[in-house]
Amino acid sequence: MKFAVSSKGNSISDTLKNKIQTYLLDFGMELNEEEPDLVITVGGDGTLLYAFHRYSDRLNETAFVGVHTGHLGFYADWVPSEIEKLVLAIAKTPYHIVEYPILEVIVRYNDGGREEKYLAMNECTIKSMEGTLVADVEIRGQLFETFRGDGLCLSTPSGSTAYNKALGGAIIHPSIRAIQLAEMASINNRVFRTVGSPLILPDHHTCVIKPRNDVDFQVTIDHLTLLHKDVKSIQCRVADENVRFARFRPFPFWKRVQDSFIGKGE
Ligand code: NAP
Question: Where are the transmembrane segments (predicted)?
Answer without folding.
Answer: none
